[in-house]
């Protein structure tokens, strides 16, 4: 399972479905599957489900039977150098597949990659041309949708929010179809997926304010996560505590991050989580603030210890606070809950 976004959720959906169909797969996922309490297992079945990491090209090492490509949104350009090279490595990954490539029919990058693929493909998405087509998407605290394949069509409701998760479910179902399972059974089992840790995960509530954590760290992911949160919060406010990840990503996508964060009512903007990178002169979280067209609602806080109180002051009963990023921002959740109490 590869892609710029949605890998962990899609992989978790497939694993949940296979377990529900008594397949006992081995698996390695990028996040803990909530209902299982684990991200890996050595099963007795003949299937091995792996979330593959594209960030450094290591996903080319896998000997793949069926490849799922969730999307190919530009990322990791610090490693690949260009969008064209990024597309090519996904095509190389797909063309190593022995049997089938399952690929998104809506995503611009995935469509570019599909032109480079020589193996049989099964497409999924909202496009009328998709082999497994998702339609009639309805969002609130849960997301409902219909999936059709050939002459069959079934409806489903997930226990998780977000339009993007209807698309993730379509990709998971398409992969299960590629494995030989039927549409109805696949949809039923995928709908049992209850989420993974750090994907819009509720951690607690104080003073009527719910505190969530989300792994989103790319503009597309931030936008999807906040749009999903908006469908759940209703008339309440969303206060996002955002920690940018990587100097290179912040420099390349500052404008896109600023645009994505507009879906939040208030933003507490932290400094950059460096991860594997050395600091770059002039590159801080403030780049996102400066790129915003609505700077009044962005509160740049470069001192970690000050941020929980700032977030707590911005939220009231019925609101959500969402810590967001793939660094260590999740560690702030207990501090925010404590700040809300005091």
Cα-to-Cα separation, first versus last residue: 44 Å
| Mean pLDDT over all positions | 92
Q: Indicate the CATH architecture of the largest domain.
A: 3-Layer(aba) Sandwich
Any idea how many domains? 2
What is the H/E string? HEEEEHHEHEEEEHHEEHEHEHEHEH
Number of beta-strand segments: 15
Helix run count: 11
The fraction of residues in strands falls at 15-25%
The residue ranges in which pLDDT falls below 50 over 5 or more consecutive positions are none
Principal-axis shape equals globular
Radius of gyration: 20 Å
The CATH fourth-level homologous superfamily of the largest domain: Mur-like, catalytic domain
CATH top level of the largest domain is Alpha Beta
Pfam families: Mur_ligase_C, Mur_ligase_M
Domain Mur ligase central: 2-175
GO molecular function: acid-amino acid ligase activity; ATP binding
Domain Mur ligase C-terminal: 198-327
């Amino acid at each position: 399972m590869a892609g710029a976004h949605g890998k962990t959720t899609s992989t978790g959906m497939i694993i949940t479905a296979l377990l529900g169909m008594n397949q006992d797969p081995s698996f390695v996922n990028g996040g803990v599957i909530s209902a299982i309490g684990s991200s890996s297992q050595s099963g007795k079945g003949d299937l091995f489900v792996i979330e593959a990491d594209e960030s450094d090209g290591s996903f080319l090492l896998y000997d793949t039977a069926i490849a799922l490509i969730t999307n190919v949104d530009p990322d990791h350009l610090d490693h690949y150098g260009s969008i064209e090279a990024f597309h090519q490595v996904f095509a190389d990954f797909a063309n190593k597949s022995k049997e089938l490539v399952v690929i998104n029919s809506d995503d611009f990058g995935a469509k570019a990659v599909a032109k480079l693929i020589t193996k049989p493909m099964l497409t999924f998405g909202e496009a009328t041309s998709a082999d497994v087509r998702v339609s009639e998407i309805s969002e609130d605290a849960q997301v409902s949708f219909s999936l059709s394949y050939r002459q069959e069509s079934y409806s489903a409701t997930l226990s998780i929010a977000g339009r993007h998760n209807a698309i993730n479910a379509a990709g998971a179902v398409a992969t299960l179809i590629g494995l030989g399972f039927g549409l109805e059974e696949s949809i039923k089992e995928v709908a049992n997926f209850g989420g993974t840790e750090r994907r819009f995960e509720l951690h607690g509530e104080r003073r009527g304010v719910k505190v969530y954590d989300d792994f989103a760290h790319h503009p597309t992911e931030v936008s999807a996560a906040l749009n999903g949160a908006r469908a759940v919060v209703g008339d309440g406010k969303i206060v996002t505590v955002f920690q940018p990840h990587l100097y290179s990503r912040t420099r390349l996508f500052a404008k896109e991050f600023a645009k994505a964060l507009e879906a939040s009512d208030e933003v507490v903007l932290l400094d950059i989580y460096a991860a594997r990178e050395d600091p770059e002169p002039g590159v801080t979280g403030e780049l996102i603030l400066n790129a915003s067209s609505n700077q009044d609602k962005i509160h740049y806080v470069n001192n970690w210890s000050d941020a929980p109180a700032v977030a707590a002051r911005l939220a009231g009963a019925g609101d959500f606070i969402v810590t967001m990023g793939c660094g260590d921002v999740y560690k702030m959740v207990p501090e925010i809950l404590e700040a809300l109490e005091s």
